[in-house]
Write a structure and sequence with these properties.
The chain is of the alpha/beta class. It has 2 domains: 6-62, no CATH class; 69-283, Uncharacterised protein PF01937, DUF89, domain 3 (Rossmann fold, 3-Layer(aba) Sandwich), CATH 3.40.50. It has 13 helices and 7 strands. Strand 3, helix 9 (191-198) and strand 4 form a beta-alpha-beta unit. The longest helix has 19 residues, at 69-87. The two termini are 14 Å apart.
Length: 288
């Protein structure tokens, strides 16, 4: 099994799942006990499995297809209202779009050491982005040479900034393949939603993961993910999933906020810093 720190990660998971039950106004202590037992009984399967499966369990146990549906719609509406003015200041520099997408990764459900508020989505967009193992000029060169770019999306709200970057890459003549979860997971956008949002964009294709897991977990997609000249992976979950599975995709670039204090310590940055991280940098990380 793999955790950055097993006690801290499991406490974080329980805190996140219990916050979901509380938000849904579930007050029966038996539900919290049942969920806690499920988490502990499945903890040995590893971080990826227990995080995903506990959310799937919660959805099915409560008979709710997507407990965050209203929240996701609200976040997307907020971002859509704000994004046109923001993009007018970026000019034609595609790297600025990449930095904006990284800074927008503030959205998440409550976790140990981090609480998101809707104000954060727009208020933190100007935070300094830290580059680890890569440079702005280096990324410009990669994008200039790339024929195909993969993009693994993450949370609602920030997806509008992903969409702006995807559109920019397509306008530059790059073929962009967007990977999304096929089923709901926390506040992540789903394949169906992404298809609707990107409908009509030339040079853009959407691929679903087949379930609630990240496309990175579907080993049948590894050859596709590795085919691209550049693979952009958004968010903390995709970053931690890569750390656990170690697929060593040489084309990977990670855009995220280091919301988790443990991940911030691994990366050597202040908690909640937006970062752009190369695959080489990630592969050199040693978990204690």
């Amino acid at each position: 099994m793999w955790y950055v720190d097993a006690p801290e990660c499991l406490l974080c998971l329980l805190e996140s799942r219990y916050s979901e039950l509380k938000k849904l106004n579930v007050k029966d202590p038996a539900m919290y006990m049942e969920l806690g037992r499920y988490v502990m009984e499945n903890a040995g399967r590893g971080r990826v499995a227990v995080f995903i499966e506990s959310h799937v369990w919660l959805r099915r146990r409560l008979g709710i297809d997507d407990p965050h549906n209203d929240e996701k719609a609200s976040l997307e509406s907020l971002a859509k209202d704000a994004i046109s003015n923001l993009l007018s200041n970026l000019g034609d520099d595609v790297v600025k779009y990449v930095e904006l997408a990284a800074a927008a990764n503030s959205v998440d459900i409550p976790m140990r050491g981090y609480r998101f508020s809707t104000e954060d989505l727009l208020a933190r967009l100007n935070d300094e982005v830290r580059w680890l193992g890569f440079t702005r000029d280096g990324l410009r060169e990669v994008i200039a040479r790339a024929g195909s770019i993969g993009y693994v999306v993450d949370n609602a709200g920030e997806f509008q900034f992903d969409k702006a970057l995807i559109k920019k890459l397509a306008e530059l003549g790059r073929e962009v393949v967007v990977y999304a979860r096929s089923e709901p997971y926390e506040v992540d956008v789903t394949e169906e939603y992404v298809i609707d949002e990107l409908h009509g964009l030339s040079n853009v294709k959407v691929v679903g993961s087949g379930n609630a897991y990240s496309a990175l977990v579907n080993r049948d997609l590894w050859s596709s993910l590795g085919f691209h000249d550049l693979l952009i992976m958004k968010g903390l979950d995709n970053f931690e999933t890569y750390l656990e599975l170690k697929p060593r995709l040489g084309n990977a670039l990670f855009l995220l906020r280091a919301k988790c204090p443990l991940i911030a310590r691994l990366l050597g940055v202040p908690t909640n810093s937006p970062v752009i991280v190369s695959r080489d940098y990630v592969d050199e990380i040693r978990i204690q």
